[in-house]
Amino acid sequence: MSDSKNLIVEGKLADNERMKAQSKHLRGTITEDLADNVTGGFTADNFQLIRFHGMYQQDDRDIRNERTKQKLEPLHNVMLRARLPGGVIKPEQWLVIDKFAADYSLYGSIRLTTRQTFQFHGVLKPNIKKMHQTLNKAGIDSIATAGDVNRNVLCTSNPVESIVHQQAWEWAAKISEHLLPKTRAYAEIWLDGEKVETTEVEPILGDNYLPRKFKTTVVIPPQNDVDVHANDLNFVAIAKAGKLVGFNVLVGGGLAMTHGDTSTFPRKADDFGFIPLEHTLAVAEAVVSTQRDWGNRVNRKNAKTKYTLERVGVDTFKQEVEKRAGITFAPSEAYEFTGRGDRFGWVEGIDGKHHLTVFIENGRILDYPEKSLKTGCAEIAKIHKGDFRMTANQNLIIAGVAADDKAEIEALAVKHGLIQPDTSHQRKDSMACVSLPTCPLAMAEAERYLPSAVSELEQILQKHQIADESIIYRVTGCPNGCGRAMLAEVGLVGKGPGKYNFYIGGNREGTRIPRLYQENVSHEDIMRSLDELIGQWAKERQSNEAFGDFVIRAGIVNPVVNSAKDFYE
Ligand code: SRM
Ligand code: SF4
C-alpha cells in the first residue's frame, strides 16, 4: 500500500488550473474575443479554452516568417476536431463536412486522425461560429475533443461485422456521452443557446476538469487497431457465444515524452481485471474521478494517468477504482492481440452487408493531381445507403453496402484513386502525424515526409527480395507522439529540422515499446541503417519472424520491459 501522502502532489498549481477554475465552466471570454476584429486570434486564457470546445489556434508555419517580415500578425486560424465515437459518420453528414472543407478551410482538406475522427485545418475567425452551427445541424459536435477531458472514444473499426462489433460501438458511444462535460458553454457560445452558467455542476470531471487530457477505447481482440497502450482507459471486449459479456479493463497507457526529460516516458496500460457489462459506466467514471483527484496538477508533464499509477502504485489506484465503482475486478479473461492494421478491400458482415476499407495516405482527404480522393468520397456519399467509419490508422471504411450496390461503389472508388491495387503492404503499414505546416509543436516533418520515405523503404525491401513484407513504420514530428511511433517496429521521433530519434523493436501487435537505436539522425543515416538491418533480417529471420521481433532476438536492441525503469537505459 502506497504512502497516502503520495496520493496528491503538493505545490504551486500549474497555471492551467487557475485558467480552468476561472473559466466559468469553459466560457472564459470567448464570445468577446469572437467579436474582436482587430486580431484573427484568441487571447490569453481563451487561446487554451477553445480547446475544450474542440479547436486549436494555429497558423501556417511555412508563411510565418514572411508575414513577420511584412509586419503582419501570423495568419491565425483554428483547427477543428470533431467528436465521433468509434469514427462513425453518415453519408449526409459526410457531404456537409466535404462542402465546409471546400468552402471555408484554408487547406480544403478533411484530415482523418489517429483517433478515428476528422479535422478541418485553417478556419478563419469569421467562419468559426458558422462551422459549429453547420456541424450541429448535421448532428456533429466537437465537444471535449481536446483539453483536459475525456476525448473522442475509439472503437475497433468495422462494428457492424458482427453483433459484438455493434455492441462494442454502442458502448463506445455511451461511454463518450457519460464522460462529457455537462457545461452548456458549447451550446451557448457556438449555437446561441440559453445562458445557464450559474446553475451548473460537473459531477464527473469536477469544476476544474481533469489534470490533463484523458483517452479511452473499446477494443475487440484479436484486433488492436485502436492501440490500447496509447490510452488512459481501455475496455477490452470479451465475448461468449458471439455476444459481448463484459470487458477486461486496462488503465494507464500513454506515449508522450519530452526530449531530455527522463521523468517522462511512454508507458503501457496495466491490466485491472474483468467486469461484466453492467459495471462499465461506473468503472469508467471511477477511473476518471480517481485520476481527477490524484493526478498531478502541479506539473503538467507528469499529469497523465500513467504517471499517477507510477506514483501511487497500480494496486492503490485499482483498489480506489473498486471502492468508487462499488465492484471487485475479477481476474482478466484470456484474449490475444494479433495485429493492428486495417483489412483493406471488401469484407462481408454477418448481416449480409459489405464493407470496403480504403487506404488514405496520412488520412489526408484532398483532390490530388493523380487521385481525386475528396471528390471520390463525396460521390460515394451521394449514393451510399450505409455509413462511413474512420479508422484509428487514418483510413476509411465505406460500411453497410448492400450486395447490389457494391459494383457502383467500387467503380467510384477505383475511378477516384480510393482503390489502388499496387499500394504496397509497407505503405499501408506506415503512418505519420500531421506535423508541419500546421502543428505549432512540430520539430521535424512527418506527414509531408512519409510518402517519399516509404518509397525508399519499399526499394530497400525490394533490394533484399522481401518486397511483400512490411514493417510497422511510424513517424511523429515531435516527442508528443501523435503518430504513435512509440508503438511501432520502426519509430521516428522529430528532434529538429531533418533530424529524428530512431527507435526499433516494437512489435506488430502493439504490445512492446521500441528502444532508442540512434539519436538525432538524418534521413540518409536512417535509410542507411535500415538497409543494413533489413538486409540482416531478410537473411537471418526465422520463419515469419517480424522485423521488430528479429531486432530483439538478434540482440540489436534490448526489449523495453518496464518503461518507467528501463526506457532510458
Ligand atoms: Fe496529438 C498535441 C495532432 C493523436 C499526443 N496533437 C497535438 C496538437 C493539437 C498540437 C498542439 O497541441 O497544438 C496537434 C495538432 C496538429 C495539427 O495541425 O493537426 C496534434 N494528435 C494529433 C493528430 C491529428 C495526429 C494525426 O496525425 O492524426 C491526432 C488527433 C487525435 C484525435 O482525433 O483526437 C493526435 N496525440 C495523438 C496521439 C495518438 C493517440 O492518441 O492514439 C498521442 C499519443 C498518445 C498519448 O496521448 O500519449 C498524442 N498530442 C499529443 C500530445 C502529448 C500529450 C502528453 O501526454 O504529453 C500533445 C501535446 C500536449 O497535449 O501538450 C498533442
Ligand atoms: Fe504535432 Fe508533435 Fe503531434 Fe506531430 S507529434 S502532430 S508534431 S504535436
Structural commentary:
- With 569 residues, this protein is of the alpha+beta class.
- Among the domains are: 345-421, Sulfite Reductase Hemoprotein,Domain 2 (Sulfite Reductase Hemoprotein, domain 2); 426-566, Sulfite Reductase Hemoprotein, domain 1.
- It has helices at residues 15-21, 30-35, 44-52, 64-69, 91-104, 128-137, 163-178, 185-191, 280-294, 305-312, 314-325, 373-383, 406-415, 425-428, 450-463, 523-540, 547-553, 563-566; strands spanning 55-58, 77-81, 88-89, 110-112, 118-123, 154-155, 216-219, 233-240, 243-251, 270-276, 345-348, 354-358, 364-365, 387-390, 396-401, 430-432, 473-476, 490-496, 499-504, 515-522.
- The longest helix is centred in the C-terminal third of the chain and has 18 residues, at 523-540.
- It is globular.
- The structure holds siroheme and iron/sulfur cluster.
- Siroheme (SRM) is lined by residues 56, 58, 79, 81, 113-115, 117, 119, 145, 151-152, 213, 215, 227, 230, 254-256, 304, 363, 433-434, 438-441, 480-484.
Which characteristics define this entry?
569 residues, alpha+beta, Sulfite Reductase Hemoprotein, domain 2, Sulfite Reductase Hemoprotein, domain 1, 5-stranded antiparallel beta sheet, 18 helices, 31% helix, globular
